[in-house]
């Protein structure tokens, strides 16, 4: 069997938001029984069928790079992570729906990964006002995933999901909200599964098909 082409997707977010549990669910369709803190970076692989069900269908490896979530501002911490940001093809930004700060910190994570040679300084989020221009020229596909949906009381769910919808809009990204301890949130045919597949298709297209803006190059 010929080796499959692959793409690299970073999984970024604060410690404790559930990145490792999410990656395990995405790659194995199973709940991670005893998640632990990620030191450095952990890599797992998902098999994805690009444009499934069409004549253009092709199977790819999706490498999911789960980067340790320390938000320390020390230059040494950022420079250590920088090695993981090389040659990335897509980014999944993960936040805890019960922790507003983890949502706000996604701006810092994305800027650090997309502009790794210019470390962000100061506060990037102030009273909910975001500088969208920082992400206006981004060509890397992004997906925003909120975890711990099951822990939000029904009385507050609409308020929280409205706030996170604006977050995804700022990144020009689709949004998935789920509970990583329940595989049904990513069941085949569900809206979340469709969004995920669409994101991976976009990552593959950026890596293997799209060149020079709108010019399309097909590779065998």
From TrEMBL:
<keyword id="KW-0342">GTP-binding</keyword>
<dbReference type="Pfam" id="PF08477">
    <property type="entry name" value="Roc"/>
</dbReference>
<dbReference type="InterPro" id="IPR027417">
    <property type="entry name" value="P-loop_NTPase"/>
</dbReference>
<protein>
    <recommendedName>
        <fullName>Rab-like protein 3</fullName>
    </recommendedName>
</protein>
<keyword id="KW-0547">Nucleotide-binding</keyword>
<dbReference type="GO" id="GO:0005525">
    <property type="term" value="F:GTP binding"/>
</dbReference>
<dbReference type="InterPro" id="IPR025662">
    <property type="entry name" value="Sigma_54_int_dom_ATP-bd_1"/>
</dbReference>
<comment type="function">
    <text>Required for KRAS signaling regulation and modulation of cell proliferation. Regulator of KRAS prenylation, and probably prenylation of other small GTPases. Required for lymphocyte development and function. Not required for myeloid cell development.</text>
</comment>
<comment type="similarity">
    <text>Belongs to the small GTPase superfamily. Rab family.</text>
</comment>
């Amino acid at each position: 069997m010929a080796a499959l082409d692959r793409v690299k997707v970073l999984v970024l977010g604060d410690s404790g938001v559930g990145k490792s549990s999410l990656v395990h669910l995405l790659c194995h369709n199973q709940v991670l029984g005893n998640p632990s803190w990620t030191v450095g970076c952990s890599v797992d692989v998902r098999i994805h069928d690009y444009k499934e069900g069409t004549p253009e269908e092709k199977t790819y490896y999706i490498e999911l790079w789960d980067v340790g979530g320390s938000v320390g501002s020390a230059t040494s911490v950022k420079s250590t992570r920088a090695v993981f940001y090389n040659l990335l093809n897509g980014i999944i930004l993960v936040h805890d729906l019960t922790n507003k700060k983890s949502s706000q910190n996604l701006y810092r994570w994305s800027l650090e990964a997309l502009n790794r040679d210019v470390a962000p300084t100061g506060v990037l989020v102030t009273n909910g006002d975001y500088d969208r221009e920082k992400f206006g020229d981004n060509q890397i596909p992004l997906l925003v995933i909120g975890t711990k949906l099951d822990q939000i009381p029904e009385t507050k769910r609409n308020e929280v999901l409205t706030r996170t919808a604006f977050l995804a809009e700022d990144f020009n990204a689709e949004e998935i909200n789920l509970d990583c301890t329940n595989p049904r949130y990513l069941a085949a045919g569900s809206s979340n599964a469709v969004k995920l597949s669409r994101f991976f298709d976009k990552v593959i297209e950026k890596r293997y098909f799209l060149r020079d803006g709108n010019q399309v190059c097909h590779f065998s």
